[in-house]
Write a structure and sequence with these properties.
This protein is α/β, with parallel strands linked by helices and about 180 residues long. Helices cover about 35% and strands about 20% of the residues. Helix 5 links the parallel strand 4 and strand 5. It is globular, with a radius of gyration of 15 Å. This is Isochorismatase family protein.
Length: about 180
């Protein structure tokens, strides 16, 4: 069984830029998983730093209200990996999940760490590159010309253990096949 992981789609991140395209892709993925009776699991980063845009207990720390309605489960984490010191693995195993699809914020942190951790735990992993986003840019890393999302996607793809797709490729590979069956 497949499951969708939606990582840190929290108000504080969404308010830092225009992420409507990424949000729409995540919502379409969530609708597809729900339609196929596959779990949609949201992960919320619990940031104890009161200065953080996603500070715990603040409006910024809440999951986007348009998306949270798709959540079958909400897992709270405090590190980049959604598996570290959480019950995510137990929930996935209890649901019979063997394939996770990863989306979320910030591409180069939590989605990437979670994708790698999922692989290390024996899950088949598909990273939906253009359904991730980051509030960071080339100036954050002092790396002119850096496209963070593309770089992370390339590294994961080249690993030969994590499948990396864009949303349209996901639709071609998974949605059309399921609709024809």
């Amino acid at each position: 069984m497949k499951a969708l992981l939606v990582i840190d789609f929290q108000n504080g991140f969404l308010q830092m830029g225009d992420y409507n395209i990424e949000k729409e892709k995540v919502e379409n993925l969530a609708k597809d998983f729900r339609r196929n009776k596959q779990p949609v699991i949201f992960i919320r980063h619990k940031d104890e730093n009161s200065e953080s845009p996603i500070a715990d207990g603040s409006e910024g720390g809440n999951i986007d209200s348009d998306l949270v309605k798709y959540a079958d489960n909400i897992i709270e984490k405090s590190t980049p990996s959604a598996f570290f010191k959480t019950n995510l693995q137990e929930i996935l195993q209890s649901l019979g999940v063997n394939h996770v699809f990863v989306t979320g914020f910030n591409t180069e942190y939590c989605p990437q760490f979670t994708a790698i951790a999922a692989y290390d735990r024996g899950f088949q992993v598909t990273f939906i590159e253009d359904a991730t986003a980051t509030v960071n840019d080339e100036s954050t890393y002092e790396f002119p010309g850096l496209d963070i999302r593309d770089f992370v996607g390339s590294v994961l793809y080249w690993s030969n253990v994590i499948d990396v797709l864009n949303y349209e490729e996901y639709v071609e590979e998974y949605v059309e096949v399921e609709l024809k069956s």
